[in-house]
Write a structure and sequence with these properties.
It is built from 16 helices and 21 strands. It is an alpha+beta fold and about 500 residues long. It folds into three domains: about 55-110 and about 120-130, Monooxygenase, CATH 1.20.1280; about 130-270, no CATH class; about 285-360 and about 400-495, Lipocalin. It comes from Takifugu rubripes.
């Protein structure tokens, strides 16, 4: 009886009676508020006091079941016929669709159109919940960024493409690769959206945990009447926003043609691996996340900026034949701030190189000393690290003081429109390699923080400048559960393309 009293508020327990005396207007009914008058009327009419959960009024059970995760509701339906019948109530499934999958559409209108919230949850959202979020397609060195979202009666896989080179601050472009829909309460249908003839039959298979693959069953829909030449011209306009004749650099033309030949062979039959957005901490230099950056003849690429104690790392989500997707393109030493010279000296690349290379040699010297101490069995590595780490206080003086910035003469930039003031600068290294990721090496450079949404990197050896701008798209189901899981993902990404 005490359990019943806690559920409905009209039982014999002292706690319930004391709560009723304190509240003359209503009593707590677990899933909502029933007026005290209604409770008294029920008692006066001989309404039986519930002995079990099944004895509660249906409207109260609907409210209770609406709070239970949808994955557990099938087990609830097995308890008894009454529960099974109540679980057909659309209110329950409507609430599960909204709370678990963030559906913003008016589900009542969808129900009028012949698709129930129950069918939407059971036949579409729940079976394909494991593919929602961010993914990296296995397209050799080129990689990519796929975002799978719920959109009304559809689950859509959007491929995110950088803006046309060199407009790094323009918004991302999106292209649908596949969709899964539910019509008239039938079985969910997968459609390939690749090509130029509209949606056609496709398939999705779960390979293993955090991995799935797509397959097009009608690849003839990807072909164009004009053959490969027309397909290339269309792809070039979408990918680069220009014709081949407008791209005068011969090496750049070769890279573009190579990418078309390589990527078009997949015909949207791809394998995807899950990726996460990096976790944030209050001590981070700026909000971690995804950025688009300029990479010379390779165009714009997407990187993921994350923070790891005393370092920041930018990992490629899209790549090129030299440095493929998944590799660590930038590594920034946050314990090595660089104080820029005045503008006149900064214009001289030799002066900037002298500053950065001095730090580079010092870092290598200390790393060798630490390695020697380790070989000798010394245990003072922690103290040695503390000696070279100036700590947060050493750079806090420049936390909000913007300083003038200009690129040194002789440093090339794809985008001449870059900020003329910066907040902080740090020593870092960038990864360069030959074609096919041959002879990779980390070369010194300067990390330049402009603001919370933009940073840059000067590659001293290449005498080039990359500008990075934040992706501002809202990405649901994409945050890492914890830092350990995120770092495991980073290690796996490097192994995918190594």
């Amino acid at each position: 009886m005490a359990v019943c009293a806690r559920l409905c508020g009209v039982g014999q327990s002292r706690r319930c009676r004391r709560r009723q005396r304190q509240n003359h207007d209503a009593c707590d009914c677990g899933g909502g508020h029933v007026s005290r008058r209604d409770c008294l009327e029920r008692t006066a009419k001989g309404f039986p006091h519930p002995q079990f959960l099944a004895d509660l009024p249906p409207e109260l059970l609907v409210e209770i079941f609406s709070l239970i995760p949808g994955t557990a509701l099938p087990n609830v339906a097995l308890v008894c016929k009454k529960f099974k019948q109540i679980l057909k109530t659309e209110t329950i499934w409507r609430r599960r669709c909204v709370e678990e999958f963030g559906m913003k559409d008016d589900l009542r209108k969808l129900e009028v159109g012949g698709v129930s919230s129950h069918d939407l949850y059971v036949k579409l959202l729940h079976p394909y919940r494991h593919i929602l979020g961010l993914w990296q397609p296995d397209i050799g060195p080129y990689g990519g960024l796929l975002n799978v979202v719920v959109d009304g009666l559809f689950i859509i896989g959007w491929m995110y493409l950088p803006p046309h080179d060199p407009r790094v601050e323009d918004p991302m472009r999106r292209r649908p690769l596949f969709r899964i829909h539910l019509w008239e309460s039938k079985k969910a249908t997968v459609e390939c959206m690749y090509g130029h003839k509209g949606p056609h039959k496709g398939d999705i298979q779960t390979v293993k945990k955090d991995e799935f693959s797509t397959k097009c069953n009608q690849t003839d829909h990807h072909r164009m009447p004009g053959g490969r030449q027309e397909e290339f011209r269309t792809w070039l306009e979408e990918e680069w926003g220009r014709t081949l004749e407008e791209i005068f650099h011969e090496h750049m033309q070769e890279l573009i043609l190579m990418k078309f030949i390589y990527t078009s062979q997949y015909d949207n039959c791809l394998t995807y691996r899950r990726i996460y957005l990096p976790p944030a901490t209050p001590s981070d230099l700026l909000q971690p996340g995804l950025f688009k950056g300029t990479y010379g003849s390779h165009g714009l690429e997407i990187v993921m900026l994350s923070f790891h104690h005393k370092s920041a790392r930018a990992t490629k989500l899209t790549g090129d034949p030299n440095v493929p997707a998944g590799q660590l393109t930038l590594e920034i030493n946050l314990s090595r701030p660089v104080v820029l010279p005045d503008l006149e000296q900064l214009c001289n690349i030799e002066e900037l190189s002298r500053l950065v290379l001095g730090i580079h040699e010092e870092v290598h010297r200390e790393a060798e000393q630490q390695a020697n101490h380790t070989k000798e069995g010394a245990c003072g590595s922690d103290s040695a690290e503390d000696e070279v780490d100036p700590g947060p206080s050493s750079t806090s003086a420049h936390q909000h003081d913007d300083q003038p910035f200009v690129l040194p003469l002789g440093v090339t930039a794809r985008n001449e429109v870059y900020p003329r003031t910066c907040r902080k600068c740090f020593y870092g290294t960038g990864l360069i390699a030959g074609h096919g990721f041959t002879s990779p090496e980390r070369t010194p450079g300067l990390f330049v923080l402009f603001d919370q949404d933009r940073f840059g990197f000067i590659w001293l050896e290449l005498k080039s400048f990359s500008l990075y701008s934040r992706l501002t798209d809202q990405l649901a189901h994409a945050h890492a559960p914890n830092m350990e899981r995120f770092e495991d993902m980073l290690r796996n990404m490097q192994s995918w393309t190594s």
